[in-house]
Amino acid sequence: MDGSGAEGELTAQETALYDRQIRVWGVDAQKRLSKSHVLVCGMNGTTIEFCKNIVLAGVGSLSLMDDHMVTEDDLNANFLIPPDESIYGGRSRAEVCCESLKDFNPMVRVSVENGDPSLIDGEFLDKFDIIVISGASLKIKLFINENCRKRSKRIAFYTIDCKDSCGEIFVDLQKHSYVQKKPGGETEQQELTYPSLQEAISVPWKNLPRKTAKLYFAMRVLENYELSEGRSPGKTTLSDIPAVLARRKDMCDKMSLNESQIPTALMEQLLAAGKKEHPPVCAILGGILGQEVIKSISCKGDPIKNFFYFDAADGKGVIEDIPPPPPPSAN
Amino acid sequence: MASAASSEEAVKAAKVLMVGAGGIGCELLKTLALSGFSDIHIIDLDTIEVSNLNRQFLFRQSHVGQSKAKVARDAVLKFRPNINITPYHANVKDSQFNVDFFKQFSVVLNGLDNLDARRHVNRLCLAAEVPLVESGTTGFLGQVTVHVKGKTECYECQPKPVPKSYPVCTITSTPSKFVHCIVWAKDLLFAKLFGDKNQDNDLNVHSKDDSSSKTDVFERNVDEGLEQYAQRVYDHVFGYNIETALSNEETWKNRRKPNPIYIRDALPEDAVQQNGRSWDHKNEEQEPSAMVFLGLRNPQEIWSLADNSRVFLEALKLFFEKREKEIGNLIFDKDDQLAVEFVAAAANIRASSFGIPVHSLFEAKGVAGNIVHAVATTNAIIAGLIVIEAIKVLKGDYQNYRMTYCLEHPARKMLLMPVEPFEPNKSCYVCSETPLVLEVNTKTSKLREVIEKVIKNKLGMNLPLVMVGATLVFEDGDGLEPDEAANYALNLEKVLAELPAPVVNGTKLTVEDFQQELKCSINIKHRDEFDEEKEPDGMVLVGWSGPVDQQVTSNGDKRSVPSSSSADDGDGTAEDISAKPGMKRKLNEILEAKENFDALKKSDVGSSSAQVVDDDDDDLVMFDEDPKQGKKKRLQ
Q: Does pLDDT of B583 surpass 90?
């Protein structure tokens, strides 16, 4: 966004189509939305939910990056791919999803970006205001997050992943100022500073409150294991459980956390999930992320800082504010 | 999770009924289909409108005007071609959807937009003993609740406020809020000018020497020019009527006096001259619009008094020029552009007169149409939560049933907050058999009023039958003999004390709706006087919305017992348990969340100002539990 927020009126067509949501977030937010550009890397159950939501909301453009050919596995939680090999056969996930999404709102440009997320360079990123990554390795997430942070324009960075009945969203808005609505109705300007992904996964666990979501720790163990074993996400299975539990012990020992904070059953559940996504959980995560992106574009409403967890087992949708590690002591 | 069947098997075997294919419905049907549900029936009365397309993602521009249920089915079959979806383009209150119909389903999922239909479905689910998952959203807020007979409270265990109505004199003489001006413009002025001429209408302020108005001032005279007529109506309602009202000094003792507005004041230069106007014929096929004609492009803009006056005159004229055939039959519709323009302009002129802040067309439309704020994301989240609850219901996993709030601001770090469901309210007139008390003046109130205001409006009965002792005094519905029907029609117009079986202090009425299989008793208590402001119905139903203390206390006690079988993944440390819903901590969470809702309600002109009829098409608001009531109940 170039800050040219409020110029130009909405057309009569836009006003009619967006009537109900303008009543929620206002005309100004709607105009900002229509000027924003979103890149999604990795098409799966959570990201298609997200894409649906922001295409309906009326973002300016949406670019999809996912060169993987569609296979039957992709149909599970995906309502954008018709289960007909003559339609999806030999085509990339991004292409097939793009075709379906275009229909949702003729006022939004939806397109495919070919290429590999691990090669995304700085200048390419400047085309976007929002980057969403899903199903990528930690290495790729960190790489893109660092690149976003090097650009002179602010690029909001999100990751979203669903593991069967559990899900995680990470948010890095760098520096974000926004209008906060107080309970009494008056508004106040607020500013938040976010840690990078690297920082947010490096904080010593003993520094975190005891009530921190168990999923935060469990996801870090899994991620750490996948990274060191060179596994792509979702490829770790229940047969890896002994090695994963050993990793849990190492990490807990190193960071003085009681292992019971990361229940074995939870680790097993995440491994058993593999790449499986539970559609209702995708809808919930994609809905939350959609709202977050709208908040960040419109600079209105308290954004999540900086992790969100959902677990269908207890039904809670929890925000965790994970700080950066403390600066090294000066001795 | 003792009770057993795997989720997949339970889902595959389930036959589910969805009521509503709107904002929540589209999301729900998609998520059900993806989750493996393969026998889904869906009822929706509505057809698709343009303003649905921003969130009801199964619909496209080309579907506008078609049945929601049918189009939703076709859209979902594209990505799940091998499942069965049975659509009904019909009203859930139709007699075909009786208790036997409901009995065939494993669970009923509501994505409705109005209280009336929700209550109706609740009753059928209770009668058919089918579990109900209920939902609602408004803006970023939403909630999902589970209602299983005998296990949890029913949808009506906590009283629901019925749409607000305003005392007649506030609307006709002493408006103090913009919504009062809207109600006046819509229900009185618009109805008078363009609606059914035979309807009662309180538009004219009655003055003592009213004998002059033998002829209806709102009728256009035979040889009267349109411009002249429009200006005459303007001067009458904004000028003359206000002057008349001012002459009643008692009214204005403690109130700010309104200013009469005449057209010559509002439009000094061009009031008289406007003859040579002609239509741009290029626009001929477009919907007539006073705004477009006057070059006012922006519906978000606040118009001056002069602009509002021009829109008023122009809209009135356009109705006569372009839509004369409809005059006499028009009912205000928020999707009728010209009607919205007329009502917005009239409300603003009246607001100016009474020193009330004026609003843009966009805002006025929201108030006039009771438009619910709606976004796709909340609906998607709520639909996901409905499916999660539905799966628990199918597995009989009742210890893990939750009602879940979707919040705008986190409460105790939570954006999605699960709470243990409440037990049935033993004094609920719907799911238990507690008699109600009706305070009414039996010497002046007619049976018709009791049926309309109480039995239909408050108790939500559709086709009621009324008995006094063993005597049937009224029955609704088809299949009546002509002489019976005539007899009941006569009874309707009788005051209670003069019915064939007189209704007086101490009489017990039995009212029943066969379709809903609901029967309740009403004990009559005679009272002479009612406060016109506070009790505009002229009768008060007690035990219906009143607090329900004793039983609730015991419920509350039970609820505070921690549930040890909550779905946690294992090692229950003390920390785990106390963080679970169901513990004392829950109380604060609920209170915080409720405050969020309160705050929203206050800031929200549209939905808190609900009027006599809820004519919106949307995914409505369910935060209709009285928050104070909620607090009180849970605090005990």
A: no
B118 labelled as ligand-binding?
yes
Same domain, B522 and B419: no
Domain containing B448 equals 436-542
**Cβ contact, residue pair B372, A20, below 8 Å:** yes
Residue B89 and residue B233: Cα distance in Å, rounded? 42
Structure tokens at B562: 């921690």
B169 belongs to the catalytic site: yes
C-alpha separations of B384 from A81, A325, B144, B293, B387 in Å: 20, 35, 10, 46, 5
pLDDT per residue over B38-89, tens digit each?
A: 999 999 999 998 888 888 999 999 999 999 999 999 999 999 999 999 999 9
Do B25 and B50 lie in one domain? The reply is yes
Kindly state the tokens that stand for A244: 């994963």
Interface test with B, best of A314, A319, A320, A322 (most B CBs within 10 A): A314
Chain B residue closest in CA terms to A269: B569
β pairing state of B39-43 and B16-19: parallel
**Angstrom distances, CA of residue B322 to CA of B79, B222, B226, B615:** 45, 18, 12, 25
The answer as to whether B364 is a domain residue is no
B113 is in an annotated binding site: yes
Domains and CATH numbers, chain A: 12-199+276-320 (3.40.50.720), 202-273 (no CATH)
> Which CATH number does the domain housing residue B240 bear?
1.10.10.520
> Does one domain contain both B192 and B287?
yes
DSSP B536: T
- CA distances for B519 relative to A223, B158, B436, B461, B540, angstroms: 60, 18, 11, 10, 19
pLDDT tens-digit series, residues B86-123: 999 999 999 999 999 999 999 999 999 888 899 999 99
Please give the tally of structural domains in chain B.
3
